[in-house]
Design brief:
By secondary structure, the protein is of the alpha+beta class. Helix content is 39%, strand content 20%. It binds adenosine-3',5'-cyclic-monophosphate. Adenosine-3',5'-cyclic-monophosphate binds next to loops.
Amino acid sequence: MIERTLSIIKPDAVARGLIGEILKRCEAAGLKIVAAKLLHLSAEQAGAFYAVHKERPFFASLTEYMCSGPILVSVLEGEAAISKNREIMGATDPAKAAPGTIRRDWGKDVEKNAVHGSDAPQTAQWEIVFFFKPDEIHSR
Ligand code: CMP
């Protein structure tokens, strides 16, 4: 089934010049970039995006980190896009991620783990609407 998923290249990966390398992995996996923009989140936006984690001990640190510099948000489209993107990202903790995955290669730790990707169809829909208006998404 053709799906859409939300991808974020996180601040330290953007700062280290990894946008091209990471998007190349997405395209090589057959995921089409149908929307993309560079954003610098406010504390309010980061808190709203990660609201599901607001009771977790890492929430303050995570939201502060996500506001520390520009991020690249994109919508990826393709066959089983949600699971395919999670496969190429690797496990949340880069130390536990499989060899050849984005997080294994470029993640620094469980917080600065280079990328975010939606984890389920409902989350993907909510996350895409959070960042993009319908006319900013271009299926092809
Ligand atoms: P992400 O896929 O963006 O979703 C939630 C984020 O919380 C996760 O990636 C990590 O960057 C971050 N995080 C920080 N600490 C932890 C932790 N101990 N366990 C899980 N996620 C964490």
